[in-house]
Amino acid sequence: MKRLPLEGIRVADFTRIQAGPQAQAWMAHLGAEVIRIESHTAADTLRQMRGAAGEDRTLNRAPGFYAFSFGKKSCNLNLRHPRAVELAKGIIKTCDVVAENYAPGAMERLGLDYQSLRKIKPNLIMLSTSGLGQTGPDAGYAAYAATIHALSGFSSLTGYPGEERPPALMAMMWSDALTATTGAFALLAALHYRKRTGQGQHIDLSMNEATVDFLPEPFLDYTMNGRVRGFVGNRDEAAAPHGVYRCQGEDKWVAIAVSDDQEWQAFCRATGHSEWASDPRFADAYSRWHHQEELDVLVTQWTKKHIPQEVTEVLQRAGVAAAPSANIVDFLADPQLRARNFFMEVEQPPIGKGTAAVVPWKLGPKPDGVRKAGPNMGEHNHYVFHDILGLSEEEIEKLIKDQVIY
């Protein structure tokens, strides 16, 4: 492609941590100019997670921050200062999109809420991401991934059948990633709508609602049948065997899913256990599902004799879904991801060279995703305040001295 889809689109990015920044990272990867508006007075939490004790402790040594900031620009504005708010409005006037994930009401107190901003930019698109939305009785509650996992119901589904314990705390930030993807999609839809109608809009994105959207079956089961789903582990509602099975080696596992009788027959042949196919307990999908415990014991006896890659190759050749349960090192070495150019080397000053994931789409034959390193704090102050806003060198120096640009 000669042009990326969002070239010419400018985004003012007021977001922090992951759910907001990752959405704007997608926008940057699609060609938008994304300008992070941040300050030393309240640096992004991820910027503060910077290296081990004894290392350089500046705000520019945080790999987790750069994972969601490649290709963006950064300018500093201390929004506690009224002049900084006016400068922010000047930046926004040149933008197509404003994205923020402050606590509900924070942008309004600054005078940067949608109703105020549309007066200076009538066709502005604004994305407000929060834990529970901008309105309603719970809107004021702060929320993070762990909170949303509990509120949405994810935690109450995370466990093995028969376990008696409270809902689990999910370590991974699933709700952040789900919300980021939902937010990016919503912005693309809003830009498409504006192109057709000329109208902007305010998108009120709740992390809780974006997460609940990925739990349709438990909610429908309760709504239609009055059943509260408990822990199911890795089991499926119909398929068996279906789970993650221990393999040879320390903490090595493989995921296997057999969806129908044809795959079951292929599974038995591939594993060298044709007697399983004639066992009446496993004669059909219904019988296998009702004898999962006995079946899982047999499958595990076979998988424990092999490493995950061997199990995967044997079963995939037979047409059965299987894959190793991978850690980060495994993903980096995965031949499929390597063949698809999913990873690329990025020089990130001042950290140095590292490996970064690109994006989950392909726009052409070349790798998509990271085109530029992430920004150091305030790296593009001169570009933003001089080139975009037209301030003189003397004005910029005074704003820095007054800690407006800070």
Strand arrangement within the widest β-sheet reads 3-2-1-4-5-6
- Structural domain count: 2
Fraction of residues in H or I helices: 25-40%
β-strand number: 11
Tell me the CATH architecture of the largest domain. Answer: 3-Layer(aba) Sandwich
The CA-CA distance between the termini, in Å, is 38 Å
Give the strand content.
5-15%
Helical stretch tally: 19
Major beta sheet summary? 6 strands, parallel
- CATH-derived topology of the largest domain: Rossmann fold
Rg from alpha-carbon coordinates: 25 Å
- Overall residue-averaged pLDDT value: 93
Helix and strand sequence: EHEHHEHEHHEHHEHHEEHHHHHEHHEEHH
Low-confidence region ranges = none
Would you kindly provide a written description of the structure presented here, covering whatever features stand out?
39% of the residues lie in helices and 14% in strands. The chain has 406 residues and is α/β, with parallel strands linked by helices. The chain folds into two domains: 10-213 and 339-401, 3-Layer(aba) Sandwich (Rossmann fold); 242-246 and 253-324, 2-Layer Sandwich (formyl-coa transferase, domain 3). The strands form three sheets. The protein has a six-stranded parallel beta sheet, with helices on both faces. Helix 1 (19-29) crosses helix 8 (174-197). The chain is elongated. The mean pLDDT is 93.
Q: Which descriptors apply to this entry?
A:
406 residues; alpha/beta; Rossmann fold; formyl-coa transferase, domain 3; 2 domains; three-stranded antiparallel β-sheet; 11 strands; 39% helix; elongated
